[in-house]
Amino acid sequence: MDYLPIFCQLQRKACLLVGGGEVAERKARLLLDAGACLTVNALQFNNQFHVWAELGQLTLVEGAFYADLLAEKWLVIAATDSAEVNALVYQSANQQRVFCNVVDDPKRASFIMPSIIDRSPIMVAVSSGGKAPVLARLLREKLEAILPQHLGKLANLAGSLRQRVKQQFASIGARRRFWEKLLAHDRLAQSLANEDTELATQQVEQLFAERQEEQGEVVLVGAGPGDAGLLTLKGLQQIQQADVVVYDRLVSDGIMALVRRDAERIFVGKRAGYHCVPQEQINQILLEQAQRGLRVVRLKGGDPFIFGRGGEELETLAEAGIPFSVVPGITAASGCSAYSGIPLTHRDHAQSVRLVTGHAKTDGELDWARLAAEHQTLVFYMGLNQAAVIQQQLITHGMAASMPIALIENGTSTRQRVIEGELAQLGTLAAQVTSPSLIVVGSVVSLRSKLNWFASRDIPPNLSKMA
Ligand code: SAH
C-alpha cells in the first residue's frame, strides 16, 4: 500500500493554499466545504477569491510565498503554475512536518487528493496513487452512477436511530435484522429521495413495531477444496452476512479472509497435537449460537454433504426447530480432478465415478468386488492411512496391478502436488504425501499427461511427475 487512505477532520483547522488561479479555486472550494480555516497566498487572485475574502470565508495574503506562512498550519496545498514555487512550498512543508499536496505532482506530495463521491456522511474516495488519474475518474463515474442520491439521507437516518435500536432490541441478531430491513427498504428509500419525511417516519415506526425474529439460523456452506476462487457467490454472500463462522482445518486462509471482519470465528478443527472438537460438541455449538439469535455459518471444506457430516449437524438443528439451509460447494474430487487434468469420466475410460471413504466405520462396509469392476473411476477421500488395504483389496478382487493411480495433495491450492503411479505402488506412494490428499484410481489418470494445465504453470511437467 503506497498511501494510507484517511478522512481528515478539518473543521476550523488552519490550512494554507498557495495559488490564486482556477485550479487553486477548485481546491479552495473543497477545503471550505470541509470547514477549514483557510489562508490563501498568491501573487494574484482571480475574482472568486476576492468574493470569498469579502464574505469573510478566507484570508488572502498577496505576494511571494514564504515559509512562515506554514506556521501553525495542519496542511497545505500548492496549486500555482510555477514548478519552482510548488517545489519550494513542498520543501518548506516537509521541513515543518506539515502535510503537503502539490497539485498534479504525486512525487511531491505527502498526501494526495482522491476522486470523491460525496453522499455525506457516506464518502467514497478513489485513488490510483497518481498512476492512472483517468482510470480513477472512470471508476468514480461508475460509482457515482450506482450509489443512489438518497444514500446520505439513509445514513443520517440510521445514525439518528442507533440509540433507540440498541434500547429496543436486546440481541445483536435482532439489531442486525432491523438494520438489514431498514437499509433494504425500497419504499423507505423512495420516501427519503422524495423528502417525504412524514411517510419515512411512518415506515420507520412500522419497522420498529415489527417483531424482529429472535431466533437465529444456521447456514451450512461448502467452501470448496482450497482455491478461494472456487467459493460460490451464494457462499460468499453468506460468509459476509454471518455473525458467527464455525470452521475447521480444511477451510483455506484465502476463504477465511473473505469472512465479515467483525464476525466471531470459532475453530473446531484439529490442531497439531490436539484432537478435533468432537462432533457432538460441534452440533452443540451450532445450536447454542443459533439460539442466541445469531446468524451462524457452518463453513466446511469441499461440499458439506460429501463426507462432511453436514447431515449429522443438520439433524440436531432440525430436532431443535432451528431454521437452516445449505449452500453446496465444490467437492475435493471435482476440484482436484480439474486442477490435475484428470477427468473423472471419459467416454473411452469410465462411465461412472464412485466417491469412496477410506475411513469406513467398520470392516466389511465396502463392497470391494464392485469397486474393482471395470470402466469406472474411484476417488478415495481420507484414504491415506488405508492406502495399502485399498491396493491389496482391489488387486485381490481382480483389478489390474498396473491400473493408473494418482495421489493429489492440497488440491487446487498453490501447494498442490500430484503423484502418479500404478495400483501396485499405492501403499508406498501414499507414504510420500500428507493430508489432505485424494486417491484417484482408474485409467482416466493416464489422460493427465495431455490435460494437465495447472501444475504446468508453476512446475515443468517432467518435474511435477517426479514430485
Ligand atoms: N466435504 C469435503 C470432504 C471432507 S473429508 C469435500 O467435499 O471435499 C476430508 C477429505 O477430503 C480429506 O481427507 C481428503 O481426502 C479430501 N480433501 C479435502 N480437500 C482436499 C484437497 N484440497 N486436496 C486433496 N484432498 C482433499
From TrEMBL:
GO terms for molecular function: precorrin-2 dehydrogenase activity; sirohydrochlorin ferrochelatase activity; uroporphyrin-III C-methyltransferase activity. It comes from the Bacteria. Keywords: Cobalamin biosynthesis, Lyase, Methyltransferase, Multifunctional enzyme, NAD, Oxidoreductase, Phosphoprotein, Porphyrin biosynthesis, S-adenosyl-L-methionine, Transferase. InterPro entries: 4pyrrol_Mease, 4pyrrol_Methylase_sf, 4pyrrole_Mease_sub1, 4pyrrole_Mease_sub2, CobA/CysG_C, NAD(P)-bd_dom_sf, Siro_Cobalamin_biosynth, Sirohaem_synt_dimer_dom_sf. Residues 216-467 are annotated as: Uroporphyrinogen-III C-methyltransferase. The keyword Acetylation does not apply. It holds the Pfam family TP_methylase. The modification Phosphoserine is found at S128. S-adenosyl-L-methionine binds at P225, G301, G302, D303, I306, T331, A332, M382, G411. It catalyses: uroporphyrinogen III + 2 S-adenosyl-L-methionine = precorrin-2 + 2 S-adenosyl-L-homocysteine + H(+); siroheme + 2 H(+) = sirohydrochlorin + Fe(2+); precorrin-2 + NAD(+) = sirohydrochlorin + NADH + 2 H(+). Residues 1-204 are annotated as: Precorrin-2 dehydrogenase / sirohydrochlorin ferrochelatase. Gene3D superfamilies: Cobalt-precorrin-4 Transmethylase, Domain 1, Methyltransferase, Cobalt-precorrin-4 Transmethylase, Domain 2, NAD(P)-binding Rossmann-like Domain, Sirohaem synthase, dimerisation domain, Siroheme synthase, domain 2. NAD(+) binds at E22, V23, L43, Q44. GO terms for biological process: methylation. The active site is at D248 (proton acceptor), K270 (proton donor). Pathway: Cofactor biosynthesis; adenosylcobalamin biosynthesis; sirohydrochlorin from precorrin-2: step 1/1; Cofactor biosynthesis; adenosylcobalamin biosynthesis; precorrin-2 from uroporphyrinogen III: step 1/1; Porphyrin-containing compound metabolism; siroheme biosynthesis; precorrin-2 from uroporphyrinogen III: step 1/1; Porphyrin-containing compound metabolism; siroheme biosynthesis; sirohydrochlorin from precorrin-2: step 1/1. Its EC number is 2.1.1.107, 1.3.1.76, 4.99.1.4. Residues 218-426 form the Tetrapyrrole methylase domain. Residues 150-207 form the Sirohaem synthase dimerisation domain. Residues 124-145 form the Siroheme synthase central domain. Coiled coil: none annotated. Then it catalyzes the NAD-dependent ring dehydrogenation of precorrin-2 to yield sirohydrochlorin. Finally, it catalyzes the ferrochelation of sirohydrochlorin to yield siroheme. In the C-terminal section; belongs to the precorrin methyltransferase family. This is Siroheme synthase. The lineage of its organism: Bacteria, Pseudomonadati, Pseudomonadota, Gammaproteobacteria, Enterobacterales.
